[in-house]
Amino acid sequence: MATSMRGLTQFIADIRGARVRDLEEKRINKEMANIRKKFKDGNLDGYQKKKYVAKIIFTYILGYKVDVGHMEAVNLISSSKYSEKQIGYLAVTLLMHENSDFLRLVVNSIRKDLDGNNEIDNCLALHAIANVGGSEMAEALAEDVHRLLISPTSQTFVKKKAALTLLRLYRKHPDVIPATEWALRIVSIMDDPDLGVVICVTSLVMALAQDNLDAYAVCYTKAVDRLNRLVIEHEYAATYAYYKVPSPWLQVKLLRLLQYYPPSEDPSIRSVLHQVLQTIMNNSAESSRNVQHNNAQHAVLFEAIGLAIHLDTASPLVGTAAVLLARFISSKETNVRYLGLDTMAHLAARAESLEPIKRHQSTIILSLRDKDISVRRRALDLLYSMCDVDNSELIVGELLRYLKVADYALREEMVLKIAILTENAAGDHVGDEVWYRVVQIVTNTEDLQEYAAKVIFEHLKAPSTHESLVKVGGYILGEYGHLIANEPGYSPMEQFQVLHTKSQFCVASTRSLLLSTYIKWVNVFPEIKPQLLNIFERYRHVLDAELQQRACEFYALASRPDDDELLQNVCEEMPPFPPRVSALLGRLNMKHGDTEDKRTWIHGGKEANLDRDAIKRKAEGNSAVAGQLGNQDIMGSLAGLEISPSSPEVASLSPELPSFQPASDKAPRLTTGPNVDRWFDKLTYTAEGVLYEDDQLQIGVKSRYQGHLGQLAVYIGNKVSAPLTSFTTTIHISDPDALSVTFAKMPPSIVGPRTQTQQLLHVECKKMFSTPPILSVSYLAGSHQTIALRLPIVITKFFEHVKLGQADFFERWKLIGGPPREDQAIFPIDLNSAGQLDLAKHKQVVSGHRLNLLDDIDPNPNNLVAAGVLHMSVEGKVGCLLRLEPNREAKLCRLTLRSTSETVATEVRKLVQQPLKAES
User: Fold this and answer.
1) Are 813 and 756 found together in one domain?
2) What CATH number is attached to the domain comprising 486?
3) Is residue 176 a known part of a binding site?
4) Which of 453, 419, 422, 418 is nearest to 438 (CA)?
5) Is 33 annotated as a binding residue?
6) 539 a known binding residue?
7) What's the CA gap between 162 and 127, in Å, rounded?
8) What pLDDT digit, counting tens, does each position of 816-826 carry?
9) Residue 16 CA: distances (Å) to CA of 23, 28, 33
């Protein structure tokens, strides 16, 4: 370019030769005046426009203000010559901001370059969008960028740039990107054979998944599979081995991505992931003198330890990690010490037991005096997270001693943390905070209120109780005592006697609260109103002003006429509490803030993280806290108040997030068609056959069952001469508590041309279910294909034959009786070609549903009688009896099912009826 544009070369030489700034400005002003004149005259060819725009760009880079050349740069973008187009795009990205009016003029030119077959033009357009792209450009071109990313004809380097461009647009304008709609297609590219593409797409998925966890849930399996291929199977090109560490950047991203999701419940995924983490930790034991190798190895290792902590803090992997971390916090390298302390703080924030960390308490305290301030910060965070009742005095004392000599940048944060730790360790002095937390959760959780009233009443019967327990009892019985008043042992008088006997040992503030409980009882328990008025009368003459005023007001309120509605309005039930956070913790969290990468934990120990999870779910609109709070948790917490108001049991009231399986809660849309339904219906009463078939794919199943357990082999055949790539199979179960279906091993990601792969599923029936699981299959074969099919796993698969004689059968038939434990249907049936009943098919269907055909039971030889027992691992065994009565003349059939469970009878009737009835 310098050779072909001599004017530009001379201009640059003149600028560099200027000895003072005045001479430089004079030369630039002269050149700008000449350029304006040339642009004004017009009639410039592409070469001249390119030359003058290049001079403008150089002037802008020197720091001078430029107000000319924008339109010419726009025109250059439309040029067919690469050198001119390149200068045009460079000028646009440098001279224009995202709200520039000129950008509207280049959108069509950029779209043309995105849609073209020239990879260089594609990349120039992507660069411009990523560097400048405002909301208008993002809205107009996001679809085109996405199309370049997913196109099978796009070159590798184009895909990488397209993924990073989408990432840039999403970070700047997330509302423009339809993240949920594009989820499956974007995640499928994580199986790309080129690791460079995978790294870029994983960065994009990390950003999208944080805000759309369910939509991108399938990335969990993809990440585990890719880690297995990298770490265990060593499936990577030599160019992606960085000092013998396979693609450490990709490993770190995948390990971090897995930490966004709760641990998978799939045993095959857990097994593979455990093996990967174990291999990473074993590899770290081999020390090397090569600094770059150690850096790459440590980067992967620390992220792997973070994932191991996230999965299960009680696993042997975390025990191994604790040993490694102890070695790292004493390392001579500053970065290693920093990462060791930070990861150990993660462990302290999640672990059930802090004993493995306390063993190294002295080393951690010494880190407060490290020469590097970042290490000192991490040591402070770790001490804050590992502080509990046992070591609080020592840690707070050390922090106070260090505060005198600490850096000014650390002092404010240290003071906050010392105050919080002192509050946590202060025992009875912060009782109000503790009992408020209990009251808040009970008030906000309707399903807990009756249970909590019973529990608090039983604990108040104890000879000695903590005053915080009396406060909890006064509040909860005052608000919800009426919920248990009609049950034996919980009458209004008994509630009053138990609570009032504790008042003489309480301070004035607690007795004031009990007076408020009594006025609530006046409203709901009129039978004990005389006793309550007597209490108000006595307290009207006490010396404490607060008690006296409260008693006088309550006495006057309770003595009003019965028809007065004022008492009812005053004593209405308390509304739910708003979320409450400690002011000190609020200030500390404001100091830390949120990073772009949403952390899955915070400093402050297990209780702080449980509180954070609860508040986060509350903010997301999930009010069903009761479903996550077990009775044992609330019982232990209320009982714990008798021991110490700062006991860890109180903190356990904050619920943990529920377990999660990496699959969206929303059932996929089923693939429909007459053949699909016919294939499924046949497989409900046969052990093997075709489940689905089209021009590209054939899916067959073969199954066997024993009791409540079963195995289902799914055979997937590729019928075309090209491989099916990014092959993904997932199982969706509507009720995981009733049915369990898991893969025996990780499904493959590629199905070769004209080959067949087998996937084995383990099945367990726990309870009664009516909706079969759904198998979702997605793959790339030119375009992205998705198929969702019902698996032929129905309740009758778990039946076992029962042999009964005629007398036994009809005795049980009568014993079960009619509705609701009977289900009956009359439906049309077809006759065979000879005009006779197709008894062979009837027998095949009934016996195929694993019901034992009983001969010589029914007087009519055309009738079928069968019996079976359903096996369930949780709900046990359920018997079922069947009678099938076909009528040849009417072409109708009566099907009757009787079972000790009405839901079983109904479901079996539906399953047997479907393949028997005539299509009309």
Assistant:
1) no
2) 1.25.10.10
3) no
4) 453
5) no
6) no
7) 9
8) 988 889 999 99
9) 10, 11, 19
